[in-house]
Amino acid sequence: MKNEISKAERTRQLIIEKTAGIFNTKGYAGTSLSDLTDATGLTKGSIYGNFENKEEVALACFDYNLAKINTAVQQLISEAGSFTDKLLVYTRAYHSMTGIEFPEGGCPILNTAVDADDTNNLLKDRVAKAILAWKKRLIDLIKGGIEAGEFTADTHPEQLALSLIALIEGGIMIAKATNSPNSLNKVLKTVEFLIRHQKS
């Protein structure tokens, strides 16, 4: 029985790894069952024997893509010394979308938010939770900076956190729509300015 469970888990992981880039590039509606079977080499029955439906695969793929980014960013943050440097990690990580290894298709938060808006409540909810979790991580860093005396006491953690997220995701959207990675880098300069401007 242990081997059967292990095999099922391996199959699920294979499906996620082989299709995560497809969902992140083509979106939920644009990804077909044949895309999944072609990418995995599995039959429809095998895919739906491990996932209830295409939506469940898409949700698992979003989690997988998001985890890749979060893990890479958190590693850089753990290596940074000051709270200022920890926040500035985002300007390095997102620089031209090459600072860390992004999933195929780019940022899953932006891609899935646009793809799922008004069409898929489960995916939309997953994106909302990802943004709220990101906001909390930033708020914690900003509050840490205030307590350490790095940032001024009148810094507004939630306002700053939301502004940083909006600038980063907006910069990615502009860069993607105009096929101009440098547009993102210009926006990230504003992110850096906002972070450094909080210094006491």
From TrEMBL:
Residue span(s) of domain HTH tetR-type: 9-69
Annotated source species: Arsenicibacter rosenii
Keywords, comma-separated and alphabetical: DNA-binding, Transcription, Transcription regulation
PROSITE patterns named in the record: HTH_TETR_2
Name the UniProt record assigns to this protein: TetR family transcriptional regulator
GO MF, one example: DNA binding
DNA-binding region of this protein: 32-51
Organism domain of life: Bacteria
Pfam annotation, one family: TetR_N
